[in-house]
Design a protein that fits this description.
single chain; 313 residues; four-stranded antiparallel β-sheet; 9 helices; 28% helix; globular
Length: 313
């Protein structure tokens, strides 16, 4: 079996111009009604996207939605489960912890037109308002030159567009769930006053790259726990990659600014090792960044979405 990119959701596309992340929690009061809502949504999902793409072909709409392990187990107790779909457990380091927070249904919507993002999520939400509560809704944006909100170019080490599916999409190692993906979502707030007070040279040592040119520093120039050192997964001497996106968000009047991290991977184990590297080695960037939530989701293939709609699980 080979990966069919026409069957995948948007797990290897760019972060977009206008972005919304939404996490919902099932009420767990009436499983039949909640399952029916999910199935109704699944049955309409692709037609909603197709309609919007016909109406706004230049919007570059990209969407991914998925289920946490808790949601999959609750909704589909008799169904098979993706091999690496598990509850996300906190990652505890000597100084900082990546928390595990509740979430059942996850949506990542992006487009160059903010009205399209609004319209899509408004239509999606109609299916779920009676059976879920909102855990988190974050609206992000593309910062200058595609930089992270801390001022550095984002995604330099991502695989190329041609290579990305190999790293982001489940293959024949899990044939029942081929063309799906694992997604890890984590929201950070930043101490921007402290970060901005750092000299540029110190910021560069913290990240491991030049701020203007984006060139990687020599290892001896970096902080020992520079972000681009400890966030790598080099198990067995091989650098394992994922498709990562760091989306800025901000409420300037409240002095709240942060990054919503989303990583898509063929194997959740790679994401886990990256997180363990960051937190057990006290990633220098965490001195200025506080993780406030985190969970892992399975993003089903479009054909599996159809199976959900048809009650075939």
């Amino acid at each position: 079996m080979t990966i069919d990119l026409t069957d995948t959701q948007a797990v290897y596309k760019d972060a977009g111009q206008h972005i919304e992340f939404t996490t919902l929690l099932l009420n767990r009061k009436d499983r039949d009604a909640e399952l029916a809502a999910v199935q109704d949504f699944a049955g309409n999902y692709q037609s909603i996207l197709n309609s919007m793409n016909i109406r706004y072909p230049d919007a570059k709409l990209a969407v991914a939605f998925g289920f946490s392990n808790a949601a999959w187990t609750y909704l589909f107790p008799n169904a098979d489960k993706p091999k690496q779909l598990v509850d996300f457990e906190p990652v505890k380091g000597p100084k900082y912890t990546a928390p595990a927070t509740p979430g059942d249904l996850f949506f990542h919507v992006r487009a160059v037109n903010e009205a399209v993002v609004y319209e899509i999520m408004d239509q999606f939400s109609e299916f779920f308002r009676d059976v879920t509560s909102v855990v988190d809704e974050t609206h992000g944006f593309r910062y200058f030159e595609g930089r992270a909100i801390v001022g550095f170019i984002d995604g330099t080490e991502n695989p190329s567009t041609q290579q990305a599916p190999e790293y982001a999409v489940i293959g024949d190692e899990d044939p029942k769930f081929i063309d799906g993906s694992y997604a890890f979502a984590q929201k950070y707030t930043h101490d921007m006053d402290a970060w901005k007070a750092l000299p540029t040279e110190e910021q560069e040592k913290t990240i491991g790259r030049k701020k203007f040119s984006d060139r990687e520093l020599a290892d001896e120039e970096k902080s020992p726990n520079a972000h681009n050192i400890v966030a790598q997964d080099n198990k067995d001497g091989i650098e394992h990659k994922i498709v990562r996106m760091n989306v800025p968000f901000s409420d300037p009047a409240k002095n709240v600014t942060g990054t919503y991290f989303i990583g898509y991977a063929r194997e959740y184990a790679i994401i886990r090792r990256m997180l363990e590297g960051m937190f057990t080695n006290s990633d220098r960037l965490l001195d200025y960044s506080t993780p406030i939530n985190g969970n892992m989701y399975f993003i089903p293939s479009l054909s599996l979405v159809d199976d959900i709609a048809d009650d075939a699980l």
